[in-house]
Amino acid sequence: MELSNPMREQVLATPGALLKGFDALELNARLAVETPDIYRTRRVVLTGSGDSWFAAKAAELAFWIDAEVAAEVRPPLEAGRYQSQHFPRRELENTLLVALSNSGAAARVAEAATLWRGAGAKVLAVTKNEAGRLAGVADRKLLLPVPELPNAPGVGPYLFAVLGLELLAIRFGEVKLAITMDEAQALRAELKSLLARLENVVADLDAPALEVAAAISGRQLVEFVGGGPSFAVAEYGAAKLLEAAGRHALARDLEEWTHLNYFDNAPSQIATVLVVPANSPTQGRAVELIAYMHKLGRSLVVVGGGEAAGLAQRLGHAVLAVPAIAERWSPLFTSIAPALLAAHLSALDGAEYGRGGNPPWDDSRTAATVQQSAIWEPGK
Fold first, then answer.
1. Do 69 and 176 meet the contact criterion of CB atoms below 8 Å apart?
2. Ramachandran angles phi, psi of 212, nearest 5°
């Protein structure tokens, strides 16, 4: 059985778009922040909403490893209305706020950028819209490519943001002498080579993802679980399922699952998608969780590999195998599986993306729900 739909078509087209746009994006990342500002940056705070937040979280580890810089991810409302107002000013002045909005029009992200800049921080906008609201309030811009892709819930734009941040982390490491120029160039080449492999990853996952989607289509809830960068993939998966199919979906940190989701009183109605790359330090804990999930009678899908995937397979659960790569870059590969699951489940349901903007969801038709919100000003 094969179902064609715009979201699936966007997934299939994304590897070629990423590879085609790599060189321009790499140059943009190299020039995005001036060398003196990289030297003075002691902390990087990444913020964004929706896919932009997931991209930021997916790339956080790359800043720790390749840039050797303290980095953290904050939702824009918290970053703007709380952190910018209460962080010590000396910390703000030595922090780079990396604000992500693909459209460049998200109200909360522009608000956070405005508040951080007003508090003395430098602001980098990561966006495809050079003339957008966010770019207008930022000090510098990292422009993302605008490829022609089928109109559907975002896969390509999300992965372009992840890739752009990973390239930015390499640039920070190069300038701060955490890595040599030769090492930086080797890392860039390795990233580009991964994109050349991504087309095969998509092709290998497409049919199995459709089989899994059909198998779990009767479940009332789909939960996505992961740790570290894979928690970002879990968040992304839940978001795509909500957006593409309107199904009830949620994401949970791998450890927090045992504290919370474990106690759900209808486990047979739950499909669990566990994201755990083969070389992740979360493997051991994932193996323990799989035993609990199996005992509870959940429909389990493991995205990744290693011991966790092997156990799941032996217990009769589905595995969407993903080749092992450096974990800090793993979302480039592992995000494909939940994107395809969302695409296939949406097609199986005959769902309209974003509910078609029909009532009562018609407020979202012009993105008014996220772009036309009033901007908060301190003291008002």
1. yes
2. -65, -45
250: left (phi over 0), alpha (psi -120 to 50) or beta: beta
Domain boundaries, the chain: 6-179, 198-349
Q: What is the DSSP letter of 145?
A: P
Rounded to whole angstroms, the Cα distance separating 158 from 40 reads: 29
- pTM surpassing 0.90? yes
Question: For domain 198-349, is the CATH number 2.30.110.10?
Answer: no
205 closest CA partner among 61, 319, 294: 319
Beta carbons within 8 Å of 359's beta carbon, 6+ residues apart: none
* CB-based contact 164:126 (threshold 8 Å): yes
Instruction: Tell me phi and psi for residue 258, to 5 degrees.
Output: -70, -25
The answer to whether the beta carbons of residues 99 and 47 sit under 8 Å apart is: yes
> What pairs with residue 275 in β-bridges?
226, 303
State mean pLDDT over 242-262. Answer: 97
Angle value at C-alpha 313, between 254 and 289, nearest 5 degrees? 25
Mean of pLDDT over the chain: 95
Q: What's the mean pLDDT in 99-107?
A: 95
CATH code reported for the domain at 6-179: 3.40.50.10490
Per-residue pLDDT tens over the stretch 356-368: 899 999 888 888 8
6-179 and 198-349 have identical folds? yes
Side chain identity at residue 199, one-letter code:
E
Q: DSSP of 74-107, one letter per residue? A: E-HHHIIIIIHHHS-HHHHHTEEEEEE-SSS--H
pLDDT(210) > 90: yes
